[in-house]
Amino acid sequence: MNQEKRNSLFKFISYSAFTSTSLFLGPTDLAKGASLLGIRIWPAEEYTRVTLETDEILEIKHQLILDPNRLVVDIKGLELNSSIKEIVAKVQKNDPYIASVRVGQYQPKVVRLVFDLKEEITPQLFSLDPVGAYKNRFVFDLYPRTPPDPMATFLSKNMGNTEEDDVIAQITKNRLGQTNSNQLPETFVATPKSTKRRFSRMITIAIDPGHGGEDPGAIGSTGVMEKDIVLSISKKLKDIFDDEADFRTLLTRDADYFVPLGVRVQKARQVKADLFISIHADAYLLPHAKGASIFALSQQGASTTAARWMANKENASDLIGGLNIKTKDAEVAKLLLDLSTTAQIKDSLKLGSSIIQEISGFASLHSKKVEQASFAVLKAPDIPSILVETAFISNPEEELKLMNETFQFQLSQAVYKGVGNFLLKNPPTQRQG
């Protein structure tokens, strides 16, 4: 049964005190001895995702009860066991939406989960077909009933980084000062925040750590996951930019949770980002593949076979991470169409070339020029966008480098300096509004 047919089986029933939703999956005769393979909770500011993975297709019902706010989930075909009880321990105290979870045997072969909620939420329940190492997954996305304004949230996190500020925040530790000064370029170097800005206005950088949550990305021979490596590098890159008066930054994800590709682009556009930089540490078919690569969007096909392979692999993140196709609004869907302009791609190629020049000073390159392919995450029509493959996690030698804090910092420096040199040659124009 495909995803579309599965989701068409949703039935919504409204009551005065609560709303109830039933999800009927598979044949009426449910398999005996079904097992719960995993329970995962991914908290984030935007939403909390709860994933239940089973070896059989089961019947699930849920109801949202108000005052106090609770989400009640009944799973037919399961018996209460220690693995199901583990969900209680998985709830983090800082989860923005789940206060606690209670588990019990509601009826024979029916396990009941009760999620005590911190605020009123809008749950979205959907199922995912088996893919890769995952079996049948049932996903609950818990969104706040009143979502925060993305621009207001972004600005609140960047207090002190607005054009109107005459007094810059107290100087923070300059991370670039920890390295050998001989490594710093003459064209663009970091200086304390109290210095005069180089540009006519604040530059907003969207930094996109690839993968996350249900989508681990590539996995190295030691078990290290791409999603963890790129989040660490992205946070270092954010710190470097935030130490400069000219920049303010957005992380499309700042913790271990899944963000659909189109939503990553949408987040960048919502805060009017000037540049979009997606950070990855991918794998390839051959373990000896090595070196960093920079990718820009292509409207006419991939520049190499490897570029096409990587784009197809990255574009599969939505399938692996678990995209709820019912929640894709018109704007996100539209962004995934080929709307990018020639000017965006031209600037992306310039930006990528500037970063390649910096990376080449200390690390090997997989390609000495910017490659192009149809990456969905690069399709913002009005934001120069690049995807940085920092190294190959499938190469044991590069995997060890990627796990090294110093190497991560060097990569972050290179990206930062490449961005700065690009902006010096291509200064941002004033924006209206």
TrEMBL record:
EC primary class: hydrolase
GO molecular function, one term: N-acetylmuramoyl-L-alanine amidase activity
A Gene Ontology biological process term: cell wall organization
Signal peptide: none
Gene Ontology annotations for the cellular component aspect, listed alphabetically: outer membrane-bounded periplasmic space
Catalytic activity: Hydrolyzes the link between N-acetylmuramoyl residues and L-amino acid residues in certain cell-wall glycopeptides
Record domain MurNAc-LAA: where: 265-420
InterPro entries: AMIN_dom, MurNAc-LAA_cat, N-acetylmuramoyl_amidase_3
Entry's EC annotation: 3.5.1.28
Subcellular localization(s) per the UniProt record: Periplasm
Keywords: Cell wall biogenesis/degradation, Hydrolase, Periplasm, Signal
Entry's family note: Belongs to the N-acetylmuramoyl-L-alanine amidase 3 family.
Identification of the protein by name: N-acetylmuramoyl-L-alanine amidase AmiC
Source species: Polynucleobacter kasalickyi
